[in-house]
Amino acid sequence: MKPVISKGRIFRFQLYVAGEGPNSLQAITNLNRLCKAHLPGRNTVEIVDVFRHPDRALKDGIFMTPTLVKLGPLPLRRIVGSLSDTQAVLQAIGLESAP
Description:
alpha+beta, 4-stranded mixed beta sheet, 30% helix, globular
């Protein structure tokens, strides 16, 4: 059962990755696929490479990569990993209810 979500709500994400490692590339691919399938035209994604911006990762409390941060709509959520379990990611960001 899906919760009621306004069609106009924009989902804002930051994805922290470590260069072009396999887990980072997989997380980018999985997030792009998820957004295209479930949030077309209703998402913004910022990719932050912790190798290039280590100060930002520390300031934002990111200690593992890949880490997806859902900034909006609230509540803020963090998901660590390659985002390969689509149902778990959808549930974590508030697009799917628990079974």
